[in-house]
Write a structure and sequence with these properties.
The complex is a heterodimer of chains A (155) and B (260). By secondary structure, chain A is α+β, with helices and mostly antiparallel strands. Chain A contains five helices and five strands, in the order E-E-H-E-E-E-H-H-H-H. In chain A, helix 2 packs across helix 5 and helix 3 packs across helix 5. Chain B is an alpha+beta fold. In chain B, the strands form four sheets. Chain B has a five-stranded antiparallel beta sheet. In chain B, strands 11-12-13-14 form a four-stranded antiparallel beta sheet, sandwiched between helices. In chain B, a hairpin with a 2-residue loop joins strand 12 and strand 13. The longest helix of chain B has 19 residues. Chain B is globular and about 55 Å long. Chain B starts with a strand and ends with a helix. The chains are: A alpha+beta (155), B alpha+beta (260). The interface between A and B is medium-sized, with 27 and 26 residues.
Chain lengths: 155, 260
């Protein structure tokens, strides 16, 4: 076992992990932050996407020890003072979710997408979200939600 | 995943020392292939030496070439103004956005997946791989299925890509995995016309017939009538050897057209 320390949603945290402990396991099992989901566990589906030092990454394909010293943001870290993040609000407004399982990863990927492409067209959104799978196939409203959020955040 | 002892390396020398001290160690770059491999228990290293803190990231424009550190991510290459459009498009087409934020040039090159994109770019531009031991020409590097010229304990530090007069990469991605069904990198490179093919055989390789035709006439039409025999071409549920052999010429034409 080794000690890992990082900042998660603004809070300094640390814990004892094995070499093989995945970042998503650390978040869910050590920190009880179960908003980050494990869908496929094979880096295909994107339900586990979190931000590590500002970039979206698949937390099922990263070791917890690789995030030592990093700033990690999960879906639980987005709402501020009881107000949803504009991307979360846009998903609600546009019915950008059906069963909701993929939603945390979709939202985290979409925020990174808009940060890097402030004014994305539909093709860019679909291309940049290809690492997130919605098994309800609700992509149409997800794309609409990302477009609304991009406008709301100054794109 | 079997457990292993995790180490962070602070330099290439530190990584080499930690690897040498391990019973059966391996280095980890971005981990976008190695972690899935470990999860499937296809590998069982005693120690994993992580290179992310080893100072191997960054892009240097040398005027007539560009040197890219082994730990530079695909996203960084795709977004760099020091990198040619052809090379940027290779990086941009790998995996998905999250994989590109972690996956690295050095990891892709060392892994030498038969359908990986970067090996075609290295061969197509006549790149040089710099390790902690020596320089290796791309032409001598990719030796077989997941096999390279790297010795045990040898670690890639950077790759230097000479500028090309014209170059482009055309890829037919598998619709599910985004790996290349076939990808062709074609260039008027520093030392003449180079054409490299990935996805078609056990590893990326140059296409002498395509190079000969394009050396005589740099035009998609020059490849009319060129055929690639289906012997030794990969076949699977996604495409037969004959289909992939045909795709090689089609992708080569598209690459030449895109290069202009």
């Amino acid at each position: 076992m080794a000690t890992v320390s990082m900042t998660v949603n603004g809070q300094a945290v640390s814990g004892e992990v094995e070499g093989r402990t995945l970042l998503v396991q650390f978040l869910r099992e050590n920190l009880n932050l179960t908003g980050t989901h494990v869908g496929c566990d094979t880096s295909q589906c994107g339900a586990c996407v979190v931000h590590v030092n500002g970039d979206s990454m698949k937390s099922c394909t990263m070791l917890a020890l690789q995030a030592d010293g990093a700033e990690v943001t999960t879906i639980e870290g987005l709402a501020q003072g009881g107000e949803m993040h504009p991307m979360q609000q846009a998903f609600q407004d546009n019915h950008g979710l059906q069963c909701g399982f993929c939603t945390p990863g979709m939202v985290m990927s979409a925020i990174d997408l808009v940060a890097k492409n402030p004014n994305p067209d539909e093709a860019t959104i679909r291309e940049q979200l290809e690492g997130n799978i919605c098994r309800c196939t609700g992509y149409h409203n997800i794309v609409k939600a990302v477009q609304q959020a991009a406008k709301a955040t100054g794109g | 995943m079997y457990d292993f002892k995790f180490h962070s390396a602070f330099s290439v020398d530190d990584a080499a020392a930690k690897l040498a001290a391990a019973e059966d160690g391996t280095v980890m770059a971005g981990g976008q292939t190695l972690i899935p491999v470990l999860k499937q228990r296809l590998a069982n290293p005693s120690d994993v030496v992580d290179l992310s803190g080893a100072g191997l990231s960054g892009i240097t424009n040398n005027g007539d070439s560009v040197t890219i550190g082994a730990m530079t991510t695909h996203a960084e290459v795709a977004g760099s103004s020091d990198v040619s459009a052809a090379l940027r498009s290779v990086a941009e087409g790998i995996g998905d956005a999250q994989v590109r934020n972690r996956g690295t040039l050095g990891g892709s090159v060392a892994n030498n997946d038969p359908a990986a994109d970067y090996p075609a770019a290295l061969l197509g531009l006549g790149a040089t791989i710099t390790t902690n031991q020596r320089d290796i020409a791309a032409d001598d590097f990719f030796t077989g299925l997941f096999e390279t010229a790297l010795n045990d304990g040898e670690i890639i530090k950077s790759v230097t890509f000479p500028n090309a007069t014209k170059a482009a990469y055309a890829k037919f991605p598998n619709p599910a995995s985004r790996y290349a069904m076939v990808g062709v990198f074609a260039a008027q490179a520093a030392d003449g016309v180079r054409v490299a093919v990935t996805g078609a055989t056990d590893c990326a390789h140059r296409g002498p017939k395509l190079e000969a035709a394009l050396s005589a006439n740099w035009s998609p039409d020059a490849l009319d009538g060129v055929t690639i025999p289906a012997d030794h071409i990969n076949g699977d549920i996604h495409g037969s050897p004959e289909y992939r052999a045909h795709l090689v010429v089609v992708m080569a034409k598209r690459a030449v057209a895109a290069a202009g």
